[in-house]
C-alpha cells in the first residue's frame, strides 16, 4: 500500500512539474522548435530584456503588485486585529464574508469590479488603467492577508496583552511589543502571498485594466494569440523562479515561527 501511495505521489508530481520543466529546457533552445532541442543558447533571454512591450508590462506589474501588497497588508492587519476582538458568532460571520473573494470564481469578481468601475466612471470620470487595476488587486489580496494573520492570533496567549498593560504598558506599547512581534510572521506571509497572487493574476486584471496600463499576464496572452515565441518560455521561466523563491522565503519564515512557538511552549 505504501508503494502504491508513493507511486501515486510521483505520478502527481510528474503531471504537475514535467510541463514546467519542458518549458524551462526549451527556453534555452537555439531554434524556435517546441519539440526538438537543437542547441543551448541565451538569445531568447537577451531578446526578452530588449522587448520594450514586455519590459514595460513587467515594470507595471511589479509596481501594481508591490503597491497592492503593501496596502493590502496594512488593511488586512487592521482588519484581522478588529476581527480577533469580536465575539464568536460575529467573528464567524465576518470571516465567512471575508473568505468569499477567495471562494468566489475570479471571472465573477472580475466582471463585478468591471461593472462597478463602469458605474463610477460615468459619474466621476474615472478611466480604466492603473487606479482600477490597483483597487482590483487590493480587493482580492486583503482576504489572503487576513487568512495568514488570523492563525497567529489563535496561537498567541490571549492574556499577554492584558498582562503587559497591568505591568504599566499603554495599549499602543502593548500592541507594539507584544501583539505585533507575535503576528509579524503572518503579516510577512500575507504580504508575500498577496504579492505572488498580484504578480500572476490574469482574469481580474483582464476585466479591470485599460489600454494605458496592462499587466504582464495580459501582455503574454496577447502575444500567444498571434504566435508563441520562445521569449514567452524565457519569461515564464523567470516568473516561475521568482515565485519559487517567494514560497521558499514564506516557508522559512513559517518554519522559524513554529520552532519559536515550540520552544516557548516547552519553557
Explained architecture:
- The protein is an all-alpha fold and 267 residues long.
- Helix content is 82%, strand content 0%.
- It has eleven helices and no strands.
- The longest helix has 37 residues, at 230-266.
- The relative contact order is 0.13.
- The mean pLDDT is 83.
Number of helices: 11
Label the overall shape.
globular
SSE succession = HHHHHHHHHHH
Unreliable segments (pLDDT under 50, ≥5 consecutive)? none
* Beta-strand percent range: under 5%
Rg from alpha-carbon coordinates: 23 Å
Largest sheet: none
Query: Total number of β-strand segments?
Result: 0
The residue fraction in helices comes out at over 70%
Mean pLDDT: 83
- Which structural class should the secondary elements be placed in? mainly alpha
Distance N terminus to C terminus? 40 Å
Helices and strands in order:
Blueprint: H1 2-26, H2 43-50, H3 52-84, H4 88-103, H5 106-124, H6 130-155, H7 160-166, H8 171-200, H9 203-208, H10 216-226, H11 230-266
Helix pairs in contact: 1-11, 2-11, 3-6, 3-8, 4-6, 6-8, 7-8, 8-11
Considering the chains and any ligands shown, give keywords for the structure.
82% helix; 267 residues; mainly alpha
Give a quick rundown of the structure.
The protein is mostly helical and 267 residues long. The protein contains eleven helices and no strands. The protein has helices spanning 2-26, 43-50, 52-84, 88-103, 106-124, 130-155, 160-166, 171-200, 203-208, 216-226, 230-266.
Amino acid at each position: 500500500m505504501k508503494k502504491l501511495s508513493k507511486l501515486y505521489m510521483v505520478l502527481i508530481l510528474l503531471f504537475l512539474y514535467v510541463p514546467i520543466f519542458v518549458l524551462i529546457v526549451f527556453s534555452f533552445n537555439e531554434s524556435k522548435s517546441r519539440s526538438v532541442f537543437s542547441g543551448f543558447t541565451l538569445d531568447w533571454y537577451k531578446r526578452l530584456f530588449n522587448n520594450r512591450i514586455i519590459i514595460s508590462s513587467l515594470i507595471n506589474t511589479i509596481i501594481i503588485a508591490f503597491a497592492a501588497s503593501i496596502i493590502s497588508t496594512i488593511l488586512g492587519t487592521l482588519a484581522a486585529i478588529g476581527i480577533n476582538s469580536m465575539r464568536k458568532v460575529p467573528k464567524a460571520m465576518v470571516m465567512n464574508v471575508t473568505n468569499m473573494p477567495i471562494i468566489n470564481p475570479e471571472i465573477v469578481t472580475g466582471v463585478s469590479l468591471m461593472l462597478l468601475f463602469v458605474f463610477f466612471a460615468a459619474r466621476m470620470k474615472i478611466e480604466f488603467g492603473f487606479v482600477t487595476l490597483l483597487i482590483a488587486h487590493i480587493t482580492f489580496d486583503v482576504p489572503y492577508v487576513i487568512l495568514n494573520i488570523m492563525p497567529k492570533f489563535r496561537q498567541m496567549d490571549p492574556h499577554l496583552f492584558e498582562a503587559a498593560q497591568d505591568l504599566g504598558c499603554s495599549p499602543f506599547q502593548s500592541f507594539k511589543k507584544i501583539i505585533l512581534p507575535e503576528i509579524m510572521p503572518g503579516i510577512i506571509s500575507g504580504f508575500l502571498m498577496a504579492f505572488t497572487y498580484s504578480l500572476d493574476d490574469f482574469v481580474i486584471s483582464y476585466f479591470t485594466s485599460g489600454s494605458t496600463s496592462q499587466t504582464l499576464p495580459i501582455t503574454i496572452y496577447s502575444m500567444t494569440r498571434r504566435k508563441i515565441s520562445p521569449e514567452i518560455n524565457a519569461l515564464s521561466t523567470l516568473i516561475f523562479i521568482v515565485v519559487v523563491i517567494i514560497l521558499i522565503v514564506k516557508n522559512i519564515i513559517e518554519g522559524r515561527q513554529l520552532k519559536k512557538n515550540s520552544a516557548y511552549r516547552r519553557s
